[in-house]
Records
---
Amino acid sequence: MKLINKIEFFIIISSIVLFTLLGCSQLTIDVPEPPEPPELIINDDVIVIDPTITLISDSTELSQGIYHYQYTGTPPDFTTNSVIVGQQGYGYMRNVNNVTQSGDEIILETEQAYLADVIDQCDIQDAITLSFSEKYIDMRVVYLAEGVSINRTSNGIGIISLSDTILYSDDNLTAKITNGSINFEPILNIELKIESISPFVRKFRLSAGGIIDFDCDLQLNCSVPISVGDKIPIVPIGVFEFGPILIGPVPMYVGFSLYAGFDAGLNITGTFETGFDTYASVEFGAKYHYIDKWSTIWEKSAYFNQHPLVWDYSGNIYARAYVSPELNVTLGGFVGPTFGVEPYLEFDGSIENNNWQWELNGGLDGNLEI
C-alpha cells in the first residue's frame, strides 16, 4: 500500500512539473503591427510667419518676390537659406535669397518655393468634406447670383436652389431655369508622399468625389429666330472658398464655383421648356507619380430622368443647358489644378405639319487644367 502511494505521489508531482515546464516553454507568436506612416518632418530652414510679423508689401513688391515685414519683439533669424511660410492672402512659401534689415522692418528678396523645400518627409492621406451645411472647415460665400440660395434638406445636407435664375436675357431671347437645384458636397481626397532623397515628391493625388443630385427645368422665350454660340454665355451662379487646410505648415485653399450656361439655335418664336433630373456618382481630379508623371482621374455613373416637354410652335430647335461645379486649388500661393464636372441636358428636334421629331439626351462631361 505504501509503495502504491509513493508511485501515485510521484506520478502527480511529475505531471505538475511537466505541465509547468510545457506551459512555460510554449512559443509566443508576435503578430507584427502595421507599419506607421513616415513621420512628418519639416525642413530645419523653414520659418513659419507668426502674428507678431506683419506683411506690408504692396502688390507690385509681391509680384517681384519682395516680402517686406514689420515686426514687434525679436524677429526670426532670417538667412539666405530660409524658407518662409505664411497664411496671409492665399498663403505663400518662398525661398529667401537676400535679407535687409532696418529698424523694425525686414525686406526679403525671394522666389517661389515648393512642397519639397518645406517638407522633408511625409505620407499624408486625408479626406475632407466641403460642406455648405456643416463647419468641417472654414467656408466663405464669395458670390451668389440673384435668386440663388443655400438651403438644407430634411437630413441636414446643404442644397443650392437655382429656381428662377436667369441665364441670359436680351431683347430677343430669355433663358431661365424655372425650377432647379443642385446638391453636391464633394469629398476632397488628398494624398502626398515626400521622401528625403531624390526624387523628393513620390506621389501626389488631389480629387473630388461624391454624389451629384441635379434637377433643372430650362425655359427659352424667343421673339425672333436666333442662334446663340456654343456655351455662351457662361454665368457664375455661386462662388465659395474653403480653407485654410494645412498640409504640414503650408496652407491650402479650395475654390468651389458653380457655372451655368447654354447654347441654342431656334428657328421658332414662342416658348420652349423641358428639363431633367440626374443622380450621379463621380470622382474627378489629377494624380502625380514620379515615374508616370501627371494623369487624370475621371470615374462616373449616372441616371437621367426626363421632365415634360412644353413646345407649342412649329419650327426647329437645338438647346443645351448645363450647370458645372468646378474646384480650383491654391497651395502655399502656388496655383494647382482646376477640375470640374458638367451634367448637361441636350435637346434637338423639329415640328413640321404636326410631325414631331425630337431627341433629348443627358450626360456628364469632365474637365481638368493642370
---
Amino acid sequence: MERGVRGWVANPGFHLRRIGWPGQVGLLLAAVAAVLALPMADDLGRREAVLRAQARELAAASAARAAAGQAPGARAAVDPDAFPPDAAAQAFVLASHEAAARHDLRLNRSDMRTGSEAGGRMVRHRIQLPVAGRYVDLRAWLAELMNANPSLVLEDLDVRRPDVGQASVEAVVHLALLTRAP
C-alpha cells in the first residue's frame, strides 16, 4: 500500500471507506469551509485597505491641526450666547414637573445644584429628579425634555422595578442644564 497523498489519489474509495462516515462528513465540511473562506478573505483585504486609508486621512488631519497650532483633542470654542439665560433653569424645573404630570408620572420633588463651567461664562445646573410611573411614559417624558432643551444633558438614569409583576418603575434621573452665566 502506498503512503501519503499518492495513496489517496491512487485509491480514494478505499481510504474514504476506511475513515467512515464521520471522516467523510468532516472532509466535506472542511471542503465547504475552504470554498466559503476564499471570498471572505478577499472582502477582508478590501476592508483592511479602507481602514488603512481612513487611518492615513485621520493622521493627515491630526498633523494639519498640529501645524495650525491646535491641540490634538481640542474642541471648538463654546459660544455662551447660544445657551439659554441662567434664569431658564427654574423655568425648566417647573416645565419638567408639568411634563411629568402630562405623562402620568409621579414627580414629587427635584434637587438642583449649580456650578460654574467654561471659565465662568457658563453655569451647569445639576438636577436630580426621582420619578415613578410606567417605563414607556418615562421614556416619552425624557424624550420631550431632551427635544425641547438642546442644552440639556442626561448624565445618569437609574431605573428600578420594585416588583417584577408591576408595570411601574422607579427612576432617579440626573440631568445637567447648561446656561449662560448672569
---
Amino acid sequence: MSRTKKLRNAFLILVPILLFVIVLAFIDKPMRYRLYPWDRITGRIYVEKNDQVYEIMPDNITAQFGTKTTKVHANTENGSTSISVHAGAYGEYCISIEIDGIPHPLEIVCYQYNWWDICDFELSIYIDSRAETITIDCLRMSLNNEGEKVQIRHSSTLNLYDDVLWFRV
C-alpha cells in the first residue's frame, strides 16, 4: 500500500472520531445524565433517637414504585445509612424505614420529575419520644433541565403517633 493511501485511510478514520469528540463536548451534560446507568436515587440517612445515635438495619428499609417493590441497596456504617434505588422511570418512589419504638414506618417519598433525573439527598432524623415528635432535616441535590446541580433544603416536624409518617424529599 502506498504512503498516500495510508494517509488517506488514517484521515478517514481520524476525522469521524474527531468530529464525534467535538459534538460530544457540546452535548456532554445532557447525554451523560440521560445515559447514566447507575442508581438515580441515592441518599444518606442519620438518625438520632432521644439524643442517641440510632443505626438503621439495612433489612428495615424497603422501596416501592407504584405497586411494585423496588430493590434498595442499604449500608449502615458509623451511625449513618447510605441507600440507593435504581429509579429509572418517571414518578413517585417511596422508601419505607422501620425504626424500633415508632408504631408506623417512616415513609420517605422521592419524586423523579424526569425519567433521567438523578436525586441525591441527606436526611437527618431526630426522634424525641418525650415530646412525641420526629424532626426531619433534608438537603436534596438534583439536576435541572440544563444538567446543572440544584440544592434544596427543607425540614418538617411530625407527630410520632400519626397514622402515616410521610416526608417528601
---
Amino acid sequence: MDNNDVIIDNNISERNYTFDALKFILAVLVVFRHVPSEYQMNLMPVTTCGVPAFFMVSGWLMYYREVTVKRLLKSSWRIFKILFLSALFYYMVYWFQHGHIHEPSIQGTVFFLFINDVSFAGHLWYLAAYVYVLLALAFIYKHSTPKILYWIVPLLAAVYLAADIYYILADMRHTLTLVYVFRSWLFTGIPFFCFGAFLHLNNGGKAIVKRWIGMLLTVVFVLLAIAEFAIFGFTDHISDVYFTTWPLCFALIALFSSFHIGKNNLFSKWGEKYSLYIYLFHPLIIPMVKNSVPDNIVGAYLQPVIVLFASLVLSSIYVGGKGLVLSIINNNNHNC
C-alpha cells in the first residue's frame, strides 16, 4: 500500500456510538431550525450549528476505520447516489407543486457544479458538499500528503470567519455570501469535516476533555450564541452565519466524546440509520403539517415535533423498505 493512501496514521479506535446519538440530536436541531414555530427565531443561534456539526461528526466517525483513497471514493459514490435520487425526487416535487418543470439557469448550473448549490431543493447543498469534500480529500491523499490539511484547514476556516465579519459590516443580507461561503464545500465542508478528523486523531477517539468541562463549554457557547443573536438580531444575520457556530460545534464534540457507548441503543440506532433521511425528508413534511395543524398557539408550538416524528416514521419506512427490496433481490440472485 502506498504511504499516501493512508490518511494520517493507523490509529484505529473502538467505535463510540455516542456520536451516532449526536447525529440524531443534530437532525432534531435541523428540523427545529427549519419548521416555523413560536420559538424558531429564539433557537436559531443554537440550531444553526446542526449541519456544520454534521460535517464535524462525519470527520470524527470516518477514522474508526483506516481511511484510504479507495474508501473515500467509495463513500463519495455512495453519497452521490443518494444525492442523485434525492435531487430527482425533489425535482418531481417541484414540478408537482409549481405545475411546471424547473429550468435551471446558467448561474444555477454553475453554482451547482462548483459550489454545490441546488436551486430547486436548497437543503441538498449538504449532500453535494459532502461529495465534493470526499473527492477533494481523495485527491489530496492520492497526489499530495494528508498533512497538508493541517495548513489548509485553518486558512479555509479563517475565510469563513472573515466572511462572517464582512457579512455583518457590509450589511450583506442576501444569497451570494451564503452560497459562496456558508453553504460551501470548500469553506464549510472541508474545515468542519477535517477539524472533526483532527480531534479524533489527536485524541485516539477518546475524550477530548473531562465531562464537566464539556458540559461547561456547551453551556457557555450556547449562552454566547444567544447573546450574539440578541446583539445583532435576525436582521443582521442569516440563519447560517454566527461567530459562535465553530466553538459551539467543538463544544458538542468535546462533550459527547466524554461519554462512551460501546453498544447501540435506541437513539444511536436512530442517528446511525435515520438522521440523514430525517434531513432529506423533513422539507417534504413541513408544508403538509403546516396545512393540517390548527393555526393556533398549540399548533405553533407542536409543528416542529410533528414534523420530526413524521420524518422519523417516513425514514424508518424508507430504510426498512429499501432493506426488504435488497434482501429479495439478493435472495433471487442467490437462487439463480
